[in-house]
Write a structure and sequence with these properties.
Blueprint (H helix, E strand, L loop, with lengths): L1 H12 L8 E2 L6 H8 L5 E4 L16 H6 L4 E2 L5
Parallel strand pairs: 1-2, 2-3
Helix pairs in contact: 1-2
């Protein structure tokens, strides 16, 4: 978490950017990134999402769940 906080603080200090900017952290860090990015122009994304809209699929995160966290982007099929 400390490394993420340091990276996001550095990005925020560099605003404004001349291009759209998004970060796509691993899922366990998304909630912390939501808080760290509040009030910035840096968009939040995720590294992958489930092909299933809903349901209990162990380890899967649906697009709706990511949207609930404020994710506007996802790297589909991230490997």
């Amino acid at each position: 978490l400390a490394a993420n906080a340091e990276l996001l603080a550095g990005l925020r200090a560099a605003e404004p950017f001349v291009c759209d900017t998004a970060v796509c952290p691993p899922f366990p860090y998304l909630a912390a990134c939501v808080l760290a990015l509040q009030g910035s122009h840096i968009a939040l994304g995720a590294q992958d999402c489930s092909a299933h809209e809903q349901g209990a699929y162990t380890g899967e995160v649906s697009a709706a769940m990511l949207a609930d966290l404020g994710c506007r982007y996802v790297i589909v099929g991230h490997s």
